[in-house]
Automatic annotation (TrEMBL):
<feature type="domain" description="START">
    <location>
        <begin position="10"/>
        <end position="207"/>
    </location>
</feature>
<dbReference type="GO" id="GO:0010879">
    <property type="term" value="P:cholesterol transport involved in cholesterol storage"/>
</dbReference>
<dbReference type="GO" id="GO:0070508">
    <property type="term" value="P:cholesterol import"/>
</dbReference>
<dbReference type="GO" id="GO:0032367">
    <property type="term" value="P:intracellular cholesterol transport"/>
</dbReference>
<dbReference type="InterPro" id="IPR042555">
    <property type="entry name" value="StarD4"/>
</dbReference>
<dbReference type="GO" id="GO:0120020">
    <property type="term" value="F:cholesterol transfer activity"/>
</dbReference>
<dbReference type="Pfam" id="PF01852">
    <property type="entry name" value="START"/>
</dbReference>
<dbReference type="InterPro" id="IPR023393">
    <property type="entry name" value="START-like_dom_sf"/>
</dbReference>
<dbReference type="GO" id="GO:0005783">
    <property type="term" value="C:endoplasmic reticulum"/>
</dbReference>
<dbReference type="GO" id="GO:0005829">
    <property type="term" value="C:cytosol"/>
</dbReference>
<dbReference type="InterPro" id="IPR002913">
    <property type="entry name" value="START_lipid-bd_dom"/>
</dbReference>
<protein>
    <submittedName>
        <fullName>STAR4 protein</fullName>
    </submittedName>
</protein>
<dbReference type="GO" id="GO:0015485">
    <property type="term" value="F:cholesterol binding"/>
</dbReference>
Length: 207
């Protein structure tokens, strides 16, 4: 188990990585799934042998409220059907924390429940916000869970210029689920999970 990293340089590196992903040209992405709420693309990850996913959709609400529902905190467990538990293990200054959370089984439990320990950081970006994270090798792995690993992930949320009550939400996700899994099952689960994330989030914001 590694000691906790110094929060400030990790937060800065993480933000820079996400901004770089955000500048990747459209031609490098391939559409993986499209719904009325979101479009999901993917490209080979530079971090591991799986994919970096990009999801994007317009959400009817202000940036701060949307990000409050996504980042670690009381809202997330209420609406995210994939997340089954979450606790903040450490809190740093400047919107940084370390959280441990668990996810439900997927695809008729072909993908068993997973546990993650992530460093999370929320910061301003243009006129909106970026909330991002990366997994840490920290804390004991609990029984009955496989420890997954999130390579740099994040959500950019910026207000639409011509419609301030709506925000463009763009996510970058690259999750290494680990354990013995067929890659095709992982790819199917990731695309549908990201699309469902938008529809679940929209429902939560309306309540």
């Amino acid at each position: 188990m590694d000691p906790l990293p110094d929060a400030a340089p990790l937060a800065s590196k993480l933000r820079n990585t996400l901004v770089r992903y955000h500048s990747i040209g459209d031609g490098e992405w391939r559409v993986a799934r499209k719904t009325k709420d979101a479009t999901v693309w993917r490209k080979p990850s530079e971090e591991f042998s799986g994919y970096l996913y990009k999801a994007q959709g317009v959400v009817e609400d202000v940036t701060n409220r949307i990000v409050d529902h996504i980042r670690p905190g009381p809202y997330r467990l209420d609406w995210d059907s994939l997340m089954t538990s979450m606790d903040i293990m450490e809190t740093f200054e400047e919107n940084c924390c370390v959280m441990r959370y668990t996810t439900a089984g997927q695809l008729w439990n072909i993908i068993a429940p997973r546990e993650f320990v992530d460093f999370s950081y929320t910061t301003s970006y243009e006129d909106g916000l970026l909330t991002c994270g990366i997994s840490l090798d920290y804390g004991e792995v609990r029984p009955n869970f496989v420890r997954g690993f999130n390579h740099p992930c994040g959500w950019f949320c910026v207000p639409l210029k011509d419609s301030p009550g709506h925000s463009l939400l763009t996510g970058y996700i690259q999750t290494e689920l680990r354990g013995m899994l067929p890659q095709s099952a992982v790819d199917t689960a990731m695309s549908s999970t990201l699309a469902n994330f938008y529809s679940d989030l929209k429902k939560a914001l309306k309540t």
